[in-house]
Amino acid sequence: MTEATGETSAAPEHRYTAELAGRIEQRWQDYWADHGTYHAPNPVGPLAEEDALVPSDKLFVQDMFPYPSGAGLHVGHPLGFISTDVYARYHRMIGRNVLHTMGFDAFGLPAEQYALRTGQHPAKTTEDNVQNYLRQLRRLGLGHDDRRRIRTSDPEYYRWTQWIFLQIFNSYYDEKLAKARPIIELETEYAQDKRRTPDGRNWCELTRAEQREIIDSHRLVYISSAPVNWCPGLGTVLSNEEVTADGRSERGNFPVFRRNLRQWKMRITAYADRLVDDLDLLDWPEKVKAMQRNWIGRSHGARVSFKSGESEIEVFTTRPDTLFGATYMVLAPENPLVDTLTAATWPEGVDARWTGDAANPAEAIAAYRQAASRKSELDRQENKEKTGVFTGSYAVNPVNGKEIPVFVADYVLMGYGTGAIMAVPGQDGRDWEFAEKFGLEIIRTVQPTEGFDGKAFTGDGPAINSGFLDGMAIDEAKKTIIGWLEEHGSGRGTIQYKLRDWLFSRQRYWGEPFPVVYDEDGQVHALPDSMLPVVLPEIDDYTPITFEPDNADSEPSPPLARATEWVEVELDLGDGPKTYRRDTNTMPNWAGSCWYQLRYIDPTNTEVFVAPENEEYWSGPRPAEHGVDDPGGTDLYVGGVEHAVLHLLYSRFWQKVLFDLGHLSAKEPYRRLFNQGYVQAYAYKDARDVFVPAEEVVEKDGKFFYEGEEVFQQYGKMGKTERNVVTPDEMCESYGADTFRFYEMSMGPLDVSRPWATKDVVGSQRFLQRLWRLVVDENTGELRVSTVDASEADRKILHKTIAGVREDYAELRFNTAGAKLIELNNHLTKTYGSADAVPRELAEPLVLMLAPLAPHISEELWQRLGHADSLVQGPFPVVDEKYLVEDTVEYPIQVNGKVRSRVVVPADAGKDAVQAAALAEEKIAALLDGGAPRKVIVVPGRLVNIVL
Predict the structure, then answer these.
(1) How far is CA 275 from the centre of its chain?
(2) Nearest to 377 by CA among 235, 551, 238
(3) Is it the case that residue 656 has pLDDT exceeding 70?
(4) What whole-number distance in Å separates Cα of residue 113 and Cα of residue 125?
(5) Residues near 721 by Cβ (< 8 Å), separated by ≥ 6?
(6) What is the pLDDT at residue 240?
(7) Do residues 924 and 900 lie in contact, with contact meaning Cβ atoms separated by under 8 Å?
(8) Which of 161, 190, 253, 760 has a 20 to 30 Å separation from 241 between CA atoms?
(9) Mean pLDDT to the nearest integer, 410-421
């Protein structure tokens, strides 16, 4: 919905209009670029200032890595970008060395899909999109150090991504020291017999292949056969988020199958405890910390063994105290034990509900596995309809010797625990649903609370139906049963995690190539640093090779397989020239964003990924400022909560490995995290349930109309599909960038989502116009500033504003900072708007305080006020404390708990004087009517409470 800007053709010549704002903004953006205004010096290297020491007081501010989409920015995207710019500008003005820049997460599936849609090479579309983003960002006046811009698709950048991969590949996790160490040190321990081999043989007795197998099993990066979402119709593996609930691809609606593929994995699970424990060191939102803790899923419990014929089924349970209630077992469809335990025939008298209408267990399980392979893990976890088939085998419950049936069901996942569970329907809702459907026994092992009439009881209570555990509380019962299991050789206490190792391969083109090759035996060889980067080859056809949609047995063939001259390569890796084969998979789009904050620090360094002196200066621990447990990291990281888990968890993992190996001084990448809210918008649908252009909708009598027909308003995301996109370009053209910036920051608290309303932008424009008019004569363009002293009252209001705005900027409360500036400007306009001039001592601090929010107009006014230098480096106004002291204090007067009146007394008045003034107040005296109150309580500086 559109609104006019409120300007008329008869506007004075020097009024602050959108057109004038545009000229001012262009001029100052050029000035900043020409003078390197936002360049932040490093201690050493190309970005250091010659013969100059860096200030000790520094600030490293970072935005979450943007992906340069083809659509460019809409007004929701810059919310975080502007907020970090305001924060950085304020801190520059108070004298800090501020590093603030922005690069682009240019690799990955979104860029490749956009290129496929447009029929252009991803390198071309990415470059075009980056240039468009840079144009839009420049127009917003963001104060970035452009020397530090990076993009993940630049070979000079991903050279170091590949180098970091090799650092992790050539490392192992020493559990005794709880840190990563170089793999060569592990091999030395084996060679010196300081560490025993798995089968007890000496290291020298093993073949080189056997030695390599042992070493590779310890690496933090390894190749494993892993279940993935394979979509033959698209010719690629999909993430869980790209698979619909009915097991089809989100794009194209093709069938998706779960199957095992050899993939690279990173052993992030080795760091599970540190990733959980170190969250306590971080200044992050508690919501994000909780999400990471839940994702890692550390839980204490027991591993329990159930015998089944010649086999054993091991399960992990956090509730070993409920073992007496285990009435059946469930294996994940992918569990290798399924094949072993599948009986040849159905046992006599088997319940028909258990068979899946199949003639024998093998047929039932084959059909069930096929159906399960079409479901995503998310669907399997959330699916309310429980399904499963009986294997035909039974297991023995170790605590009571009962035989219980073993099922296969897709609500159990192979990736968590052991891929098998003991089912206790009395204490678990999913197990209860399954038991009800299949007619299985239900035994309660915890006494429900009085009056409970539900199904599974998951609360606390004493143990029942549990033999020697009866009457015990849950914690006592857990400890007792774990001791019993360990004594009888049936289990042991342990810790389990939901976190799985990170699947690190993608069958895509647009990503970082792996810095490894394979020999004729299929052995992996890491490339030396001198051969980096392994440059992504240019190929004409980068589309995945697709298959018949239902061909579940098809094999992925990544696009890079077409680059045969690149894949087959002759190299000398130290034992003479040989022919090797490159990996045709690429790294996931998370790889480049795992460490980009480090390259921001030292983007032009060709010798190391970051110089130690620069890393320690910008992100090293500063215990004097942040406490003895300061982990280091970026001082402020701003972005959406949607990256709470994956990106942040992966970044923390890489940082910790590099810290362990001695490359970094900070053990965490981001000291402080702030999640901004979202700019949302109204959209409108017609009677056909089709979106119509929001800007053409007219409101009338509380209803909405498009081309005369009523349409219906809904609230949510802003996007092309919803036809409600408003771009920053439109706002800058209609109002100016400073107005747009001020409006976005004034819409509400930064961490709260807010609705976009173009019609409200004019309010911010009018504020800037009033402020401009206060300093500049709209008719002549002359200054309206004098050297006349301000009044004491004016100074009190000014310094109260300075104190409040400084605090608001420091605490990211930009909306309230803006409100205080509006309030001060209104006071000055009321006091001096009709006068010849405003005192300089009032005008200059107002302009300086406005600068972080609206830098262009502030620079212009500062220059017109006679200052030759830019105000980017300050000075920011300083509070004179004497003007914050109040001469009087107003006390609310409560009578029997209700405020009846107020009284103003001198600020230094004692209790007796305050009481006397309160009792003498006209309304209170009338209420007393000559009598005396029962009690009078004076709370100094706050209130008077009278009890009649």
Answers:
(1) 15
(2) 238
(3) yes
(4) 11
(5) 691
(6) 66
(7) yes
(8) 161
(9) 87
